[in-house]
Amino acid sequence: MTTPPATPSAPVHPLPVTAVTCLEDRALVERTTTLDLHPGIQRLRLGPITALAVDRSLRADLTGDRLGAGRVLDARIVRSWTPRAPLPPTEADSKLRRRLHLLEQEQLAEEARRRRLEARLALLAQLAADLLREIGEGAGHGEIERARWGRELDRVDAERESYGEQLRAVRCRLRAVEEEVRQAQLALDDAEEEPVELLGYVELTLEAAEPGPHRLTLSHLAPCALWRPAYRATLGDGALLLETEAVVWQRTGEDWSQVRLTLSTARSALAGEPPRLVEDVLALRDRSAEERRTVDVELREEEIGSTGPAAVDGLPGVDDGGEVRTLRAPEPASVPGDGRPHRVPLTVFSTSVSSEYACAPELSPLVTEAVRFRNGSGHALLAGPVDLVRNGGFTGRAELGFTAAGATAELPFGSSDGYRVVRETEESRGSTALAQRTVLTRTVRLHLSRFSAPREREEQVVAVRERIPVSEVAAVEVRLRKEACSPAPDELDAEGIVRWDVPLPPGGRRTVTLVYEVSAAARVAGI
């Protein structure tokens, strides 16, 4: 039994996009349609679809009213190049496109007029040259016609001046029209999209056991699509309203209109492979006499390690905590294929918060309000930017780290102008003769001030954090002198972070003093 080929002139069945799973750097597009088939083998042409569809990812399934009612024998993507015909705009086109067409027509007319004037001036220049040659030859032969020569020269000069002025006016108008055309073209590029010239079609070979409607489901991957999470946090009356959104970009060549949108952090192009085994050569050597006598140490900055993926410079991927996460839009979404960001709402939840005013004077003299809340969205909050809103106004933007469901997250809601912190440091060096140790004493003074409105009466607690060095070698000891600190610290953790909870009344001032010692043996160098 022969199968009739599907030619480009055959009827094309529409194949709309019904569902999209947007991955981190591409999209899985699903299309669904109903076909009215007759028994036997037949070839159909469906589309158009985006020409960027990945051929090897194409999958088609055919279902009918009964099991085994039909099957797909072959599916492939073909592409056709149909450039747009250079037709003038009609009444259905926009005013901007019609204006651009008129400007281009005027530009062509001015170009033609400029060429005619330049040709006329070239002829007049040739006529003037011939006339001057005739005058020279006649004067040589003694044939002098001063009156005629004068009239001819005056006429040629007058025409050259007249046409030269017209040419200058045409060139000036031509430059103005070219600028208008350029501006109109830029506006048209921003406002409208050119129709796609390269289109893809799906050619299917189907076999139906019985006539009637059959449901066709087709899926494929498409590049030029990505998404990133974004949030909007609204603070008010001791509660936080957190709205989770997906910012979707796509330029696949077609629009996604009212589709079931799913957001996934999977990266289908990221292939996993075991690490390569390389030789690790260890060598031993004897220490020199100088190395035995001294211990070299240095003070270095070290970031406090935490669980989770490392930070990435530039445009990062989606931070999912090392596990593929899937989010679904509650309502059908539309994402035009213009390559611009489009926000799709995902979830909204409200929760109570606890806030504190915190300050790290070594890093910044500002006092920042930090808000802590519990993730009650029912899903993990992926890392992304947060728009901060307070009292109905936009206050800034912060970054939200990866937060598991039910975990506690923290957001900074900006600095307060009612506080000022001044940091002063002193350092003294001494030694102990008995133990032969070098002692470095450092004193840090923090001066806190609060500027309050006349009606403020409540006391505010500010969490102040400083740090002291943490020794990694036994020859160097770091000791916090609590008896010299004023007031005594409320907390000192294993990372060397010292904390005070400083109460400040309206218009109040407080001074916090931190004193610590770094003691090193005599054989230690570098302090």
What does this structure look like?
With 527 residues, this protein is of the alpha+beta class. Helix content is 19%, strand content 42%. It contains 3 helices and 27 strands. The longest helix is centred in the first third of the chain and has 47 residues, at 95-141. It is extended, with a radius of gyration of 40 Å. The N and C termini lie far apart (92 Å).
Secondary structure blueprint with pairings:
Blueprint: E1 12-13, E2 17-22, E3 27-37, E4 40-49, E5 59-63, E6 70-81, H1 95-141, H2 146-191, E7 198-208, E8 212-222, E9 225-236, E10 239-250, E11 256-264, H3 289-293, E12 295-296, E13 326-328, E14 333-335, E15 342-359, E16 368-374, E17 384-390, E18 393-400, E19 408-415, E20 419-432, E21 437-450, E22 460-467, E23 476-480, E24 491-492, E25 497-504, E26 509-521, E27 524-525
Parallel strand pairs: 1-4, 2-11, 9-17, 12-27, 15-22
Antiparallel strand pairs: 2-3, 3-8, 4-7, 5-8, 6-7, 9-10, 10-15, 11-13, 11-14, 15-16, 16-19, 17-18, 20-21, 21-26, 22-25, 23-26, 24-25
Question: Number of domains in the coordinates?
Answer: 4
Q: What coarse outline follows from CA principal-axis ratios?
A: extended
Classify the helix fraction into a percent range. 10-25%
Please state roughly what percent of the residues sit in beta strands, choosing from under 5%, 5-15%, 15-25%, 25-35%, 35-45% or over 45%.
35-45%
**What would you report as the Rg, rounded to the nearest angstrom?**
40 Å
Average the pLDDT over all residues and give the rounded result: 86
Secondary-structure-derived class: alpha+beta
* Termini Cα gap: 92 Å
Main sheet record: 10 strands, mixed
